[in-house]
């Protein structure tokens, strides 16, 4: 594996073996990190293959347990724990949540060509070859899914798999257009036809045979939910404690929004409606986003919030067609192992000209100026792009370059939204803060819905009403958020991570950093993307050495 030094100790050797083993099950994860020797590799998801992988993981965990922590430097003790989670997390998916046995999204979602289309990390010819290898593997991948999935399947899982799978032909079409740059479109076309046929057969099977017997039983249950928190984030605190913290944050945000409404002598509905009406024209959304990228970068520099690594170039582009059904805006950052340009790609989903005028207006209201600026803070500065620049440029052990905590990644970006408001962004009126609070209410409700749906018997309807009542959402988006919680309980990550960072800051900013926010943030970002259950011990210990 390139970019990795030769082993220097038995622990280094074990670290390398664990990471290599992980990537055999999750090659697309390696590609996303910038390890392109895994380009074009599709995992074997047949039971015999995943059983063999799990047995290998068990053996590696046994060897890891024999490594005495006290014999390791402090930083490597943390790495030992990360390596444990890197194995226990996919084992949880295979054995406890049984992802491959009950979730068809695990199969259609594995067919992604995005990494090969959006970054010029290699010649087009090489990337086209990788795309062809993936397309060639689609029929066997989906056949494994048909053989492995066992009815009855949860209905929300089937519904979203149908939506994702329905977008794959357009995704393959984009790949064919991409290949046309090098006059290689016929290669994609030849591989595309059997892949699309396999997708169609898989979706028909889901629709005709699985959907009629679908069940509403999706919940992990209290024990597995608690286990999920540990294998993903190293959290051992009871989930009820996290629920109380989320409810307290929800109450705090609601109180502030009510205070703003009183100051403006308006109802909350009127305050939100006024904000929504102030939006750019459809043709100006991307230019407005570019302006906010420049503004928020200056804000970070002027307020000395964090080091801005160079080079830092963030391009604003339209979300690719295949990603528009599931994303309003997103960041495609450089991976920690990428050796090419470190450009960030900030995707913003445009208005669809085929929409009715009413639909277009509704979409633009979701991109009102205040909310678009808040999204830019989250996705670019000081959110995801700044975070991944630090991740890319800081020396780190192999374990830390590979481990990505969703709660740290999304928690940092969500924390960034609150941080810039605290530091005075948009202080000329309440609009910027209202946008930040509105998004915070959504994330608070996600945490509460996740715990409710998976541990307390909350129904989809009750979760829908939660988003309507507490986050001021209309019925349709509230229902979509509720359904998302059935298959993505980890959408607790935004609030969970933000609160972990805020708690860490409140304890250490004066005692350890003498009130210097930049020093605190640089130290925090210097640890990569660790599980939030380790934040306190990481920040209170000496800086780790690269392994």
Question: Can you characterise this structure?
Answer:
Helices cover 65% and strands 3% of the residues. The N terminus and C terminus are likely disordered. It has a 3-stranded mixed sheet with strand order 1-3-2, with helices on one face. The protein is globular and about 65 Å long. With 547 residues, the chain is mainly α. The two termini are 16 Å apart. The chain has 26 helices and 3 strands. The chain has 2 domains: 207 residues, no CATH class; 313 residues, no CATH class.
Strand order within the widest beta sheet? 1-3-2
The helicity comes to 55-70%
Helix/strand order, N-terminal first: HHHHHHHHHHHHHHHEEEHHHHHHHHHHH
Number of helical regions? 26
- Specify the structural class: mainly alpha
Uncertain spans: 1-7, 542-547
Sheet with most strands: 3 strands, mixed
Estimate what percentage of residues fall within beta strands: under 5%
Q: Care to give the gist of this entry?
A:
65% of the residues lie in helices and 3% in strands. It has 547 residues and is mainly alpha-helical.
What features would you highlight for this structure?
547 residues; mainly alpha; 65% helix; disordered N terminus
């Amino acid at each position: 594996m390139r970019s990795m030094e030769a082993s220097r100790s038995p622990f280094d050797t074990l670290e390398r073996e664990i990471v290599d083993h992980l990537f055999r099950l999750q090659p697309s994860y390696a590609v996303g990190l910038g390890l392109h020797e895994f380009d074009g590799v599709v995992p074997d998801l047949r039971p015999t293959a995943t059983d063999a992988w799990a047995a290998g993981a068990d053996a590696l965990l046994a060897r890891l347990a024999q490594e005495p922590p006290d014999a390791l430097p402090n930083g490597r003790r943390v790495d030992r724990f990360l390596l444990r989670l890197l194995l226990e997390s996919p084992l949880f998916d295979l054995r406890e949540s049984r992802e491959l046995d009950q979730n068809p999204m695990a199969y259609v979602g594995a067919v992604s060509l995005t990494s090969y289309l959006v970054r010029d990390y290699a010649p087009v010819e090489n990337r086209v070859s990788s795309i062809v290898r993936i397309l060639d593997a689609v029929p066997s991948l989906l056949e494994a899914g048909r053989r492995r999935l066992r009815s009855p399947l949860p209905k929300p899982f089937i519904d979203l798999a149908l939506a994702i799978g329905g977008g794959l032909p357009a995704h393959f079409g984009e790949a064919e257009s991409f290949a046309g740059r090098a006059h290689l479109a016929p290669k994609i076309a030849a591989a595309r036809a059997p892949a699309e046929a396999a997708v169609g057969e898989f979706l028909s099977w889901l629709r005709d045979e699985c959907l009629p017997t679908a069940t509403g039983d999706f919940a992990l249950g209290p024990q597995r939910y608690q286990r999920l928190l540990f294998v993903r984030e190293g959290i051992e605190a009871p989930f009820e404690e996290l629920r109380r913290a989320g409810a307290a944050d929800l109450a705090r945000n609601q109180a502030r929004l009510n205070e703003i409404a009183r100051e403006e002598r308006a109802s909350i509905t009127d305050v939100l409606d006024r904000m929504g009406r102030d939006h750019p024209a459809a043709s100006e959304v991307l230019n407005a986003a570019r302006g906010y990228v420049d503004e928020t970068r200056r804000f970070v520099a002027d307020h000395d919030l964090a080091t801005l690594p160079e080079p830092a170039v963030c391009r604003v582009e339209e979300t690719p067609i295949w990603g528009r059904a599931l994303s309003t805006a997103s960041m495609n950052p450089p991976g920690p192992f990428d050796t090419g340009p470190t450009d960030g790609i900030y995707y913003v989903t445009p208005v669809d000209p085929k929409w009715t005028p009413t639909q277009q207006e509704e979409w633009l209201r979701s991109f009102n100026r205040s909310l678009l600026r808040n999204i830019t803070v989250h996705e670019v500065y000081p959110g995801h792009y700044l975070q991944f620049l630090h991740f890319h440029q800081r020396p780190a052990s192999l374990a830390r370059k590979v481990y990505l905590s969703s709660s740290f990644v999304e928690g940092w970006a969500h924390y960034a939204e609150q941080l810039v408001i605290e530091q005075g962004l948009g202080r000329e009126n309440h609009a910027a803060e209202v946008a930040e609070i509105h998004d915070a209410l959504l994330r608070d409700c996600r945490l509460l819905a996740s715990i409710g749906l998976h541990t307390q018997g909350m129904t989809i309807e009750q979760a829908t009403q939660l988003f309507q009542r507490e986050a001021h959402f209309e019925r349709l988006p509230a229902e979509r958020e509720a359904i998302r919680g059935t298959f993505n309980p980890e959408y607790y990550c935004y609030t969970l991570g933000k609160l972990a960072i805020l708690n860490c800051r409140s304890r250490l900013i004066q005692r350890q950093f003498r009130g210097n926010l930049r020093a605190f943030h640089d130290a925090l970002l210097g640890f990569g993307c660790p599980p939030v259950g380790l934040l306190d011990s990481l920040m209170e210990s000496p800086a780790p050495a690269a392994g």
